[in-house]
Amino acid sequence: MAAEQDTIFALASGAPPSALALVRLSGSRALEISEELLSGGALEHSVASLREVRSEYGNAIDQAVVTAFHAPRSYTGEHTVELSLHGGRYIVEQIYERLSELGARLAEPGEFTRRAFEAGKMDLTQAEAVANLIDAESEAQHKQALQQLGGSLSNLYQIWHENLVRALASLEVYIDFPDEGDVGTEDTGPVLNRLRILSADFERSLSQSAGAERVREGFLIAILGPPYAGKSSLLNALAGYDAAIVTPIPGTTRDFVETKLRIGPYLLRLSDTAGLRESSDEVERIGVERAQ
Fold first, then answer.
1. Hey, how many other C-beta atoms are within 10 angstroms of the C-beta on 71?
2. Within the chain, which residues score under 50 in pLDDT?
């Protein structure tokens, strides 16, 4: 448990070099470490300020726009500080080195969101939605992730949970106090009816989940056909660039060549495949089996 309370840091923006780099720091010592790293004294909650970032010897590393979020009013529920720096590789390396010297450690993948979940800032469906929102490449994926982050699944599961608890409570009364006068003579019919409705809701939700998963992962479309039918040329035409090698030699494509494209709000994963035919060539035969 002690390791979970470590103060952690990580780059919360794209890899350098870039115009800006956002480094996030979170944990019980985040404010203390930041105030030692920066000029200008104490950091107020939710107030952005321009600070000088200093080395161990007081030399300037960079200027940063710094915003602090005091616990529990932060994404993770812990003290959190965000440093908006210039996005040079050397600057980021120096910040990482200095934060490590001051007692923070590099965060593990997804650790900020895990801490937010542990602090009750979000549930597991919303934590999953954060990753889906970051990975979204189409309008449909983005919309789906936003709805889930907003609690669409959480609210549905909460309703199911409440109905199951009510059904369980009613059944326990019937089992434990069958002869008590104040229990009533009502049989288990209403409870069973409630459970049938819940079961139908479960089935309907499961039947819709396959479509939701296709939206989230992207619709996989395989281009199939005999050798030299123009599969690779079709892939290149749809992709708008030479994603697959095209030659006059049948059997050029031996393995999957996949490219992504958007049609309307949806992401498609378009895959060129080996030409379907009988072959004595072991490598081509494996490619045909994979295509099939």
1. 17
2. 1-3, 185
